[in-house]
UniProtKB/TrEMBL annotation:
It comes from Sinorhizobium meliloti CCNWSX0020. This is Large-conductance mechanosensitive channel. Homopentamer. It is a multi-pass membrane protein. The gene is mscL. Keywords: Cell inner membrane, Cell membrane, Ion channel, Ion transport, Membrane, Transmembrane, Transmembrane helix, Transport. Its main location: membrane.
């Protein structure tokens, strides 16, 4: 069983997945910082306060009179649609930023591939060379 576990871990795709998860977690922090520290302040300055709908809710009982979502949840049932709207807008901004980053990386990768010199053509195998010589000799005799 231990040997099977070693074989499972040693497979390339398992290691690639582990590296992908670790890089993804680190990249997530970078993207969160871009959204929260760079994009959202600009959006907030343009819209006069940003996209924070987190306290928008509809009370589902008459006993709910609180002005904030946290206090309203303590009083009774609420339909808290505002937080969903905020998360949806943040997701769209995040998806757009990731799209732009991937587009930039793909453009840079294509530029590097274009700048690479093509590999010289491999010489034909020995048997093909020998057959070509035989063909040429037969043409000369005819």
């Amino acid at each position: 069983m231990l040997n099977e576990f070693k074989e499972f871990i040693a497979r390339g795709n398992v290691m690639d997945l582990a590296v992908g998860v670790i890089i993804g977690a680190a990249f997530s922090k970078i993207v969160d910082s871009v959204v929260n520290d760079l994009v959202m302040p600009v959006v907030g300055a343009i819209t006069g306060g940003g996209f924070d709908f987190s306290n928008y809710f509809l009370p589902l009982s008459a006993s709910v009179t609180a002005p904030t979502l946290a206090a309203a949840r303590e009083q009774g049932a609420v339909f808290a649609y505002g937080n969903f709207i905020t998360v949806l807008i943040n997701f769209l901004i995040l998806a757009w930023i990731i799209f732009l980053l991937i587009k930039l990386v793909n453009r840079a990768r294509a530029s590097v591939e274009r700048d690479k010199a093509p590999d010289p053509a491999a010489p034909p195998p020995q048997d093909i060379l020998l057959l070509s010589e035989i063909r040429d000799l037969l043409r000369q005799r005819a």
